[in-house]
Design a protein that fits this description.
By secondary structure, this protein is mainly alpha-helical. It is built from five helices and two strands; from the N terminus they run αβααβαα. The protein has a two-stranded antiparallel sheet. α1 runs antiparallel to α2, α3 runs antiparallel to α4 and α3 packs parallel to α5. It is globular and about 50 Å long.
Length: about 190
């Protein structure tokens, strides 16, 4: 039996990305490197499709490193302040994305308002498959990711301000989701971020 060696307090494990972040990055990188599993159609430009998924996969992977790195520097107030703001934005952005798209995809699945995917981007699309993939896979991932960012950021918010911080995020998500759904239905002009 070998003797156990205790780690000195100066030794630290290198931060590893969150499992959910790794999963999201793997999903995008799968398409970036030519994967076909789960394809909803034929992109007009396969090279552009791979490039978009490469950029998205890398961004998600890099973002997955933020919580463990920030946690290792938690003693610095500036780090906690950045986490409060970035986490609020991630919570609102990811959850708004999820709520808006699930509502629009359910409208599409039920025949109320079919999803229109850009003909400039897609040569052909299986809309039913795209709707199901969004409702069952993509948007739940965004929602859970947003909630996890919210929980992480909330831990940086001083106790007296936590309710106000959370309330502002929920209100922002609700308002942005309403605008997103109305825009998706064509009731107000469309807007796109990214």
């Amino acid at each position: 039996m070998s003797p156990e060696v205790e780690r000195s307090s100066s030794q630290r494990e290198s931060p590893s990305p969150s499992p959910l972040g790794r999963l999201g990055a793997a999903y995008g990188l799968h398409y970036a490197f030519g994967g076909q599993l789960g394809m909803i159609g034929e992109p007009r430009s396969p090279a552009q499709f791979r490039e978009i998924n490469l950029v998205g996969g890398v961004i998600i992977l890099l973002a997955a490193f933020v919580p463990p790195i920030a946690a290792s520097a938690w003693r610095h107030r500036r780090v906690r302040n950045v986490v409060m703001v970035a986490g609020w934005l991630a919570l609102v952005g990811c959850c708004t994305h999820a709520v808006t798209d699930v509502i629009l995809r359910v409208f599409s699945l039920t025949g109320v308002h079919p999803t229109q995917l850009s003909p400039q981007f897609w040569l052909s699309v299986d809309r039913h498959k795209a709707d199901l993939q969004d409702v069952l896979l993509n948007e739940p991932w965004f929602f859970v990711e947003g909630c996890l960012w919210g929980v992480f950021a909330l831990s940086a918010v001083p106790e007296p301000a936590r309710r106000r911080w959370l309330r502002s995020a929920v209100i922002a998500c609700a308002v942005a989701s309403i605008f997103g759904v109305l825009s998706g239905l064509g009731a107000i002009p469309k807007f796109h971020i990214g």
